[in-house]
Design goal:
Layout (H helix, E strand, L loop, with lengths): L1 E4 L5 E6 L4 E8 L6 E5 L2 E5 L5 E4 L10 E4 L22 H22 L4 E6 L12 E5 L4 E5 L8 E3 L6 E7 L2 E6 L4 E5 L7 E6 L7 E8 L5 E8 L11 E10 L6 E5 L5 E4 L6 E4 L9
Antiparallel strand pairs: 1-2, 2-3, 4-5, 5-6, 6-7, 8-9, 9-10, 10-11, 12-13, 13-14, 14-15, 16-17, 17-18, 18-19, 20-21
Amino acid sequence: MLIVPSEKENTWNIYDAVDNSFLESKLVIPYDRRFCGSSNGWLGTVNEDFTITIYKPFPLAKEKSTIHLPCLFPPKAEDSEDEEEEEEDVSEEEEEEEEDEDEEDVMSNIGETYDGHVYKALITTDPLANPNDCMVIVIFGEFRDLAYIRPAKDTKWTRINVKWPLYDILLYKDHALYAIDNQRQLECIDISDPCNIKVNLVTTSRDLSGCVKCYLVRSSKGELLQVERHLDSGEDGVTKHQTTDVRVFKLDFDGSQPRWIEIKSLDDATLFLGDNSSVSVQASNFVGCYS
């Protein structure tokens, strides 16, 4: 099932991809803000105080549908005055008024950024079915840093410190976090020990000409796939959401160095690609799916 925005506020249409039709019933979600993540049946959203809420829109009977997570490294409230005030020309009362106004402006600007504070959020497994294995991993902040939390174990977020973050894509596979940065380099990040996080470069950057959106997918066979979706940039240089070409690559470990090799067939697989998470299913197991 896919949820698609409707014209009514906080109400979503439910789309059945197998039958290629919308259900008559609607889904009402009690949040009027952007969803920063969606995986394993859960949605993530950032609150005004920079705490994060993950929400399950289709809970089972008597099942908890909301989990509240702590504050995620909010931007610092720094006063950036560039000019010095001439004390002899300004009274103490005027100074206090200006300081109050500056503080209000700074806090107002920070409040406006909460909705976009998290670029992407990944929920590794259902936190109710597998609480001890669940992690919420996020790309956040101006420099697209990484952080994670284990809802059943941690009371605060752990930042993954790397020299040059700017991450764009995440995938959790076989207890390892795979991430692609804005240079299209693939890194494997071992976060099993919060005190000794290891970052290993798997593949170097690839030359991608034109406008290309990439996705990471774990195939039903356990292979790591990267899908390139080439978009029409248009004559005016403005990117259009029109796909002109799709290429699929598999991470090959046979040589001395892992490398991406292009594949021409998905065999019995169907891929569902999304901004936050992508899924591969065996086509023969689902009516209406094609490889």
